[in-house]
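Fold this sequence, please.
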Amino acid sequence: MAVPMAFMSAVWPSERNDWTWKIPRKLEKRGKETNQDQLDFSLVQCQALVLAPTRELAQQIEKVMRALGDYLGVKVHACVGGTSVREDQRILQAGVHVVVGTPGRVFDMLRRQSLRSDSIKMFVLDGADEMLSRGFKDQIYDIFQLLPQKIQVGVFSATLPPEALEITRKFMSKPVRILVKRDELTLEGIKQFYVNVEKEEWKLETLCDLYETLAITQSVIFVNTRRKVDWLTDKMRSRDHTVSATHGDMDQNTRDIIMREFRSGSSSVLITTDLLARGIDQVSLVINFDLPTQPENYLHRIGRSGRFGRKGVAINFVTRDDERMLFDIQKFYNVVVEEFPSNDADLL
């Protein structure tokens, strides 16, 4: 059984701008005791393992790590479902320093011994709450069992549900928690509005009116179910709006193509559910066609806009049934979401 040495909790860890190849200063002393604070670039074996809840997020982390480690000669590989098992095996056997992946494929590679755990000294769970909510608990536990005894662990989670706390109790010794205060969960730089929609069935007309009125570059529309993604996509296309859509029922190749088109700008509107929009940075507008079911997910969603100093706008469609959730969101983040103005030409 692995005996991790530390626990870290943070918000949006995969999008922090202070990533280094070392652990946080608070944990530096512990790492040095076992030479766990950095990678040994001369040893071309997996020394850091990162798990993410979705293929898209895993591939985004891989891309960032490749860029950061380029001049150090860091070899990074993403092991995700929907890709060639043989290709994964070939790359892993050739040797990499860091493996990023989804729990299912990573466990499969460990089980086949294509991914050797002997040299792994850092293990990161990014989006732990989302992984647990998606039913990866058993696979995460199975992976833990295959890791070395002494290992540095980082658990990054926007929330701390009982399942995440259970991981700390079961697998961690004297964990260190780094918690972000709620008042530091910033929505700074994002203009937030709500639009009162009297009936659920009137949301579509409201959405079409917005797109006819605003000069929109890149935007993401969030809904709460995969079925609604398909429904809204069909409705928008039938009204001659060019939109893309992605959700978990689509095969990986299709999702990759859609996300690539959106990132390149050849598609400017993406309809999706919460998880699959990770790794999108160039959005100017986020529309919550459906409000999230939990206040914590509001930050995940509208954090797509206004990033890296750009101006961002979030518009929330609110029916009478949504009023309580909007109130909870404002209270949770200590913000005021204003009613959408009638003169909206200069918003974007």
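The CA atoms of residues 31 and 62 lie 23 Å apart. Residues 1-34 have pLDDT under 50 and may be disordered.
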